[in-house]
Inverse folding.
């Protein structure tokens, strides 16, 4: 399903609301990279990069790029006050040790139990897992930002993943272009809906059952 | 400059170590921090059947990608090849064997090799059949771990900002990335550096890779590729 700029930015803005003062946050590529645009200016957050940066700032102005200061995707960044560099083994040590509070990733499928499948489409060229497994398995909180359905119209939220798993029971929150789901002790729970969708529309596009939070709200 | 440890040398001299079938480990992450002068030298030497070990296969014209794209490698051990479509094409055509390792596991395997360990234990990737395939597992205090074997190489190539004549190294910002790990894991380690100073010219407290791991130092001719963002 094609997705307008508006949808992507609405999703990024919703994800930004999960970032709290003092957190260490790792952002995946794609829609998650829009998230910092929606953070309050004075919020103190340390953005982590797998290559070895804690305290990434925004992209530099044109002409001020430093070829030796790039994010994990190879694009130029800046650093904020309090930043540090380390080698990549230490950067992953931070992840495995649970020092990264939040990661926001894209995905191909998420199951009702929070299983994440985001690295292989069978029969397609396999680009490799990069750092997705460590982040999914070890970040304290995992938020998935993805379209609700794939390009063939199939639900990306499923009873159990048909694609190879990146990690089991790791996703805490799913933000799609239609709705926001929490995965908690009760199970998969619809907590917010993006206007103008209805609960019925969300049900019809979702391949598994879900609870509806009594406090469910609509995001306009 | 005095060269008391005979480590400071030329590109031509170090190229003697590279042959058809060499196992080469390289520093860098998306080409950032990969040694451009040594990569160009390997390319010009025309050697083939290489095994390349490093984080990724760079971009088509950036970093190690230049060697991969010429079909000079028979095998790559990396965490992803996503930024280099030609690597994916060669893999699909059966011309390039690719062993994937989760990024954090890969660098820890390199670190383990570099510090003389046989393997590491980790639970990363336990839920994935491809990562688990053909690996031993170990039960330790009631928890299951994968045994991930250490990696070493015949030759490690790294890129640093500054070296003294003993090979003590300092890296620049995020160009450090995998370089300090790769520097430890080579049977022969060659550092390409932007600035070489006499012994005594660096603060011992500032050293990121002790020169004990570095066998040869060559001056860099600088990055000779156009970055993806340029």
């Amino acid at each position: 399903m094609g997705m307008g700029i508006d949808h992507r930015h609405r999703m990024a803005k919703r994800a930004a609301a999960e970032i709290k003062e003092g957190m260490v946050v790792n952002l995946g590529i794609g829609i998650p990279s829009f998230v910092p645009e929606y953070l309050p200016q004075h919020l103190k957050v340390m953005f982590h990069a797998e290559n070895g940066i804690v305290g990434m700032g925004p992209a530099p102005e044109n002409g001020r790029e430093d070829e030796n200061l790039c994010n994990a995707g190879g694009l130029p960044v800046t650093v904020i006050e309090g930043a540090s560099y380390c080698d990549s083994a230490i950067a992953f040590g931070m992840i495995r040790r649970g020092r990264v509070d939040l990661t926001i990733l894209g995905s191909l499928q998420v199951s009702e139990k929070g299983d994440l499948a985001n690295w292989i489409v069978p029969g397609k060229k396999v680009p490799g897992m990069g750092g997705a497994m460590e982040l999914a398995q070890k970040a304290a909180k995992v938020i998935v930002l993805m379209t609700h359905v794939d390009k063939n119209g199939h639900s990306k939220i499923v009873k159990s993943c048909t694609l190879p798993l990146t990690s089991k029971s790791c996703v805490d929150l799913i933000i799609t272009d239609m709705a926001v789901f929490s995965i908690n002790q009760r199970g998969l729970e619809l907590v917010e809906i993006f206007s103008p969708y209805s609960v019925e529309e969300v049900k019809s596009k979702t391949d598994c059952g879900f609870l509806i939070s009594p406090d469910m709200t609509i995001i306009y | 400059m005095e060269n008391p440890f005979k480590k400071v040398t030329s590109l031509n001299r170090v190229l003697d170590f590279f042959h058809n079938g060499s196992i080469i480990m390289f520093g860098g992450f998306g080409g950032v921090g990969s040694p451009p002068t040594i990569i160009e030298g390997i390319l010009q030497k025309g050697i083939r059947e290489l095994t390349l070990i490093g984080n990724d296969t760079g971009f088509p014209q950036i970093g190690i990608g230049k060697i991969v794209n010429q079909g000079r490698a028979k095998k790559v051990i990396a965490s992803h090849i996503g930024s280099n479509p030609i690597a994916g094409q060669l893999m699909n055509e059966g011309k390039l064997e690719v062993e994937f390792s989760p990024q954090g596991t890969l660098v820890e395997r390199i670190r383990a090799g570099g510090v003389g360990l046989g393997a590491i234990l980790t639970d990363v990737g336990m839920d994935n059949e491809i990562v688990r395939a053909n690996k031993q597992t170990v039960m330790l205090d009631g928890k299951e771990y994968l045994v991930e074997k250490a990696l070493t190489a015949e030759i490690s190539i790294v890129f640093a900002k500054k070296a003294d004549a003993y090979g003590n190294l300092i890296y620049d910002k995020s160009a450090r990335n995998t370089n300090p790990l790769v520097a430890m894991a080579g049977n022969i380690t060659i550092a390409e550096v932007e600035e070489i100073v006499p012994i005594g010219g660096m603060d011992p407290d500032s050293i990121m890779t002790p020169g004990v791991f570095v066998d040869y130092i060559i001056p860099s001719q600088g990055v000779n590729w156009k970055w993806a963002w340029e």
User: Anything to note?
Assistant: The radius of gyration of chain A is 17 Å. The mean pLDDT of chain A is 94.
